[in-house]
Design goal:
69 residues; disordered N terminus; 3 strands; DNA Methylphosphotriester Repair Domain
Length: 69
């Protein structure tokens, strides 16, 4: 199994695609944080999809929490 590209460098485009499709292969490999709600979630999160302009990506939950989410 190859490592998804967003894990290596948090490539925003790859992470965005994984988030929009709720790709289970990325579950636990990065976390999505939403500026407008102040929360972070796994890429398979069933919550309504946030606008890309309000999203940032983190390699793990600790990094998202450390950034204030």
């Amino acid at each position: 199994m190859s490592i998804p590209s967003c894990v290596v460098a948090l490539d925003a485009k790859a992470c965005e695609q994984a988030r929009l499709t709720r790709d289970a292969r990325f579950d636990g490999l990065f976390f999505t944080a939403v500026r407008t709600t102040g929360i972070y979630c796994r890429p398979v999160c069933p919550a309504p999809t946030a606008h890309a302009r309000n999203v940032e990506y983190f390699p793990n939950a600790a990094a998202a929490a450390g950034a204030g989410y």
